[in-house]
Structures are given as structure tokens and as C-alpha cells.
Queue: 2 jobs
Job 1
Amino acid sequence: MKSLRKIITRSILLTAAIALLLVTINLSFLTSFMMKYSSNHPLKYAISDISDGLLNSDGTYELNSSATILMNKQFVWAMLIDREGQVIWNKNLPEDVPLQYTLADVASFSRWYLNDYPVSVWEHPDGLLVLGEPKNSTWKYNITSTENTIAHIPGFIVSFFFLNVLIALALALFLGLWLYRKLKPLYNGITALPKKEPLTLPTGGVTGEVARILNETSVILFQQEQQLAHRDQARTEWIAGVSHDIRTPLSMVMGYASELEINPRLPAAEQNQARIIREQSQRIKSLIDDLNLASKLEYHAQPMELSRVSPAALIRGVAVNFINDGLTAPYSLSVDVTEETNSPILLCDQALLHRALTNLIDNSIRHNPRGCNITLSVTNLTTGLVIKVSDDGKGYPPELIKNSGGLDESLLLGNHGLGLIIVRRIMKIHGGKVVFENLPDGGCTASLVFIS
């Protein structure tokens, strides 16, 4: 749920930021718009300059060049009305503009329009100068307001801005809550997918299509999980059945081979052949046991008998078993423990750990035919302890070390058989891990890491 809250919070903040940005953009646009288009309105000093440029020479009026330039920038016609309302001078005057005006006419067009022409007026020494713009070029309506209204405009603008901010935040909060309600079922459904159980998310609304896909996906995953479970169960049962069926005839082969091996009436060569048959049959039996154990460990079908064990005592027991079974030169096996390593107590399945250590020692012996020195040791850590099986042989292949932490156990198989896979699975069900390393001065180390 923390991830979902983080998404919703970010969505609310993003929506609020977008809303505030829109308000700012709107205000900026309005300001620039007013500044741009209001600048086209004729300035008083420009009209004044045009009026000053209209000169009277012995009753003849003439607009000088500078005034003409100013006029042509915005106005299309001009006229001068004397104090009796008669037009005494004009320039480009349209035909629909009268030549005689009353005071009422002057008052009307000064405030509004003259025959739909927007006009501007200025007092001239000889009358009233009227400058006309093209029709439909200027919106000219005066807005009258009280002083009290003008005084409250700044406060109104500030209030309007904060109102927009509040509306933007409310909108962001609303959208965030709406998004939360819509996404919460989807989030719950996605987090429930690893359980491989069918989902029944509602398929209405804007997220209905996604919910439908999640429902279908959950059904597919559930069916696949059921199929895998049935397949795994069938494979486990098949391995167990085959192992059971092979053991009986294999035991008979081993028994007869043992009798032939010690039969004094057989020649030495035939007794040796019987010994080879017995040893290879024993190896087949061990492989079958490994296969059966690996299968049970993979599917958690191997029951664990937990007990409190001293790691130092455990590795001593493993070493004694190998020595008693006749470990001879060119191999040697030693135990490196200290007083500190005698005190920790490990909660584990002693038989399975004994099997893991046995597999690692067998692996050192099998892959170093010229002999090696094997050492068992225990190291205490602040986070747990480590049991190491080291040798001074030729070491592990680089590809095994590189890929030992991956999910593909076939890389551990190679010519090591199931031994290392069983070690890894035993450590996995104990909540630990196995680390394979080659030593700088030659040899290798397999570390069984237990986390407390």
C-alpha cells in the first residue's frame, strides 16, 4: 500500500502543479494580450503631434510631413471642424462622412463612432481635429466605474488568484482520491498475482479493461500453477517409484557380487570383477539416493528433523566417519576449530548437513585424483556462522563459480553430478546459501553460510 500511496501523492502534486501552471499561464497570457493589443490605441501625444502639424497658411490648411507619417500609421482620414460645425479641411474624407455637424453630433461621435468609423478627436486652434480609423478596426466603448470599484480592483485580482489556487488544489485532491479508488483494486490484484489465485476484480469504469486483463492473467497463472504442481507431483512419485523398483534387484546384484568377491574357489581375476560389480552397483545405489533426495528437496517433500547442534562437533563427526571408512594417502582430512567455535549452537537437520559436508568432501576427492589436503573449519560471524570445506587441489571450473548463484542448476551439474545441487538445496531449506570460491594460492573453498 505504501507504493500506491506514493503514486497517488505524486499524482495529486503533479495535478496541482499543472493546475497552478495553467492559472499562471492564463494570467500571463491575459496580461500580454492586454499589453499587446491595447498598445494599438492611439496615444494622446501622437494625436497632439498631428494636430500641431496641421498648419494654417492664409486660410489654407496643410499637414506637414511628420504629422502625415504619424497619421498614416493608424488613421485613414482626417478633418477639421470649425466652431460653427462646418468642415473647413479634410484629408481622404470618405463620401459617407458629413461636412456639417451640430454640438449633439460632435458629442456623439467623440464618445462613440462616426458612421461606424472609430474616431479620435483633439482640440485645434481653429476648431476640432477629427481622425478616423477604418471601420471594424477598433472596439470603442467607454466603461464607467466608481472610484470605490477601482480601489477594490487590486484586492479582487489577489482574491481571484487565490480562489484559482484553491480550486486547483481541490481539483487535484479530487482527482487524486478518484484515482486512488480506481487504482486500489488494481494494486491489490497485482500484489495478489504471485499467490497464483484467481482474481475477481470489478471490470467497470475507466480501469475495467485493465482489471479484465488481470482477472484473465490470474486464471492463466492459476491453471499453470495447478499443471506444474500436478507435473511436479507426478515426477516426484515417478522418481520415488523407480528408485524403489531399482533397489530390490540392485540389492540382489550387490549381494551376489559380494559372495563372489569373497569366494575362494574363484580365480583372483573373477573375484576382482565381482568387486567392480559390487562397487559400481553401490555407486548406482548412491546415485538413485541422490536423485530421490534432490527431488524431495526441490519440492519440499523432504521432512526436516530440526535439532540444536554444535557446528564444531558436526564437522568432527564427518571427519571421523571418513577416516574410519579408510581415507588414505594421497588424501588427508583435518579439522580447524577454536574454542570460540565450540559455543554456537546451530538449529538444523543434522543428517542433511552431514550429507552436504559429505558431498563436498567426496567432490574434492573425486576431482583431485592425484590427492589433496582437505580442511573442515567453522567461522563465527556477527550475522551467523560459516562452515567451510577447503582443499589445495585444482579448484572449481570458472563457469561453476560464475553461475553458482544463479537459478540454472544445470550449470552446477556438469561432471559434479547431483552432489553440489543437493548441497545447494539443503542450504536453501535452512535459509542459508553455499558459496564456491577458488583460492589465490591454488585450491578451492565451499562455504556453507548460515544467517542468524
Job 2
Amino acid sequence: MDPKFTYSALRSTDVPYKEYESDKYDLKFVQIITRHGRRTPESKRYPLTMWICNSLDQLITNKDEERPECNMGQLTVLGIQDQINVGKAYKKLFIDHLHFLDKDYNSKQIFIRSTNRERTISSARSLMHGLYGGSFSDNQEKSPHHSSFYIMNEADENMYPRSSPRYNFLKSLLKKHRDVIEENKKSKLEDFTKKIQKIFEDSKFDTAFYVPTWRSYAGLVNSFDCFRNNGLPLPKGFTPEIIERMYAESAKEFKSMRFFPEMSQLGIGRFVNDLNKQMYLKGVNDSSVKDLKLALYSGHDTTLAALLVAYDMYEDNRHPVTSSALEYLLFQDKNYEAPSRFGRSNEKELINHQYVKVIYNHKPVHIGECKDKEVDGMCPLSEFIKISQSIIPKDYEQQSKISDEQKKMYANLVK
């Protein structure tokens, strides 16, 4: 491993405090959706002895001997450190600077959910370790900071796009969409792809990283990052310009989902429903979330990309890097006094005094449909809820189906 990669961050964790504090608004609630840290490949093609991992019940250890062999798709020690660093940045922000969270861990203030993958569970543990210390393991005897993460059954998981007949068919049509084809011709994507294939062929005996073909640039970038971001040798020829273009092509693939809004509904809409319900309950001061201040969701690049596309706020041209974080911040007017007794009759009034700011990797981004309705750079909560509801499928099972007639209709639309 290249020593210069030892615990070096892949993105800045410098927090712009001004985005989180205001003379006019109080921070009320925060939802954070993260991508896991650096990991090993999900492929049997490469010897996993190339990467350095800890055992699954540990975070960081300095012991270099007798380390266990990595598993496929496992968080590396660098990936663990990524998330610890993100957690430390949030500690400085939410505990030390804003005093938004208690100094000592309070499980009533924090909700944690992860997909059922080692890398996302370990990422959540590592981030919480950076925030509060402790191991956050599932064994209460080992950790004074024990916290049970909420993990859904695989059949019900909705934090990343799932296969459904309609979703799969629409995804297969994206490359055939006339606008996609025109853009790829204009950017000479075919020539760029051949250039990368030649790099791999010219170096296939020099490094372990060899990808003869790939179905998507998103998949290629994920495999590429497992090597580059862990300081492992790459084929000669991967210049900064080529790497940047690969990231841009991956982002274009994600963004192409906008041609079929149904893909957002089917792909990430049910997770949007979970986020929206929680945000709404907090907005109306429901007793079930009285003490809740932070909700952490540990997910994947596909989670973040799908949310950025669904809300039309994918403003950069890069594949979401490992340890990325997307934040929904709920603010309330400082001068507004909420009713001491609250009922359905004044829900609307209460919501009208609250706003949502979105931060992606510590930079504000803006929801496309809400840009002309923003107040001080924030989307009114009422508008945010309405936009969210447009992303949520009305009947997921029914909308997932697709007939031969509908397939023909969609095929004609893309020509």
C-alpha cells in the first residue's frame, strides 16, 4: 500500500459553520444519509490479501500482525478511518460548536439505520465512534455506548434501488434514449471507452487491476476506487483527466434517470417516504419524536445518487465518493412560539414556520422544483413535503408491473 494514502481523507471534512447557525432560525432536526467508507471489491477476481482490514468486531487497531483476511465488499482500515473522521467533524459541529446534541451519548436523541451490509454497518459504527467514542457494537457488554441499529429485512430494504420489472426495463432503455445517444456521440464516449480498454490491455500483466469490459461507468468507478483509494497500483495511463472523465460519465449515468421519473419513484421513493414521514412528525412536534435530533442512515453511492436525482439537486458532475454525506436540516423561525397544546388544526401553521436546507459534503445544494420558492436559501417545509410526496409511489407493487403494451410505448418514446 502506498504510504501517502494512510488515513488521508478523500474529501474535505471542513464544516462551514455559517450554514448551520442563524440569527433568524433555530436548528431543529437533522437527517444524514451517508455512503460507506473505502472498501474491498465485490469480486473474486482479485486476491483480498492486497487490502488491510480489521476483524468485524473492531474499529481501528495499530497491530499489523495477524490481521484477518478481508472479505469481499468489506470496509478497509482506511474506510473505517474515513467514517471516524466524518464523525469527528460532526462532533465539532453538533456538540462542540452548536451544542445541538448532548455531550454524552443519549440514545433518545439519535436514530441509526443501516442497510444489511458489513460495510454500511461498520461505517455507521465508525461514524458514531468519531462522534462519541465507544465501539457501538451489538454486544452491550463490550460498549457503554451500545446502540441497536435499525436494519430492515432484505426483502423490504428500500435504501437503494431494487429490482422490479418496470424499473429494470426502464433502466435498460436509458442507453437507447435519443438524448443519451446524442450526448454520447457529442462527447465521443465510444472513443473514450476504447482508450480505457487499451490502458487495461497494455497493463494487464503489470497490475492486478484489470477490467476487460464493463456494463456501466458507475460499476467501473466502484472497482477503480477500491484500488486507487486504498493506495494500490493502477495500470499506467490513468491520468487525472481520464479519472475525472470516468467520474463524470458515472454521474451522467445516474442523472439519466431523470428521463423516466418513474425510476425515482420505484428506485428510491419508498425510502423518501420513510424520510418524509420522520421529517413531518418532527415538523409537527409529534410526541413519538419529541427527543429525536439526529437520524443517521448508512447507505451506498446508489442511495445518494438516487436522492440527488429524485430531488433534482445533483449539481456536480462526480460519482458520490466514499464517505459522502447528504444532510437534510430542519430549521424553525426563532421568533415563532409553537402552541403549548398542539392539534391537527394548527399543523399547517406550525409547518409554515419551518424550512429545509440541504447540504451535500458540506456544501449547500438546492432542490430544483423549490429554487423559486426558497427562503434564505432554504425550501419551505410545506414545499419540501409536497415535492417528496411526488417522488413516493402510490402503489409500489402495482407500479412495478409492466405490460408488453407499455414496453412498446416506452420504446417508442425514446426513439
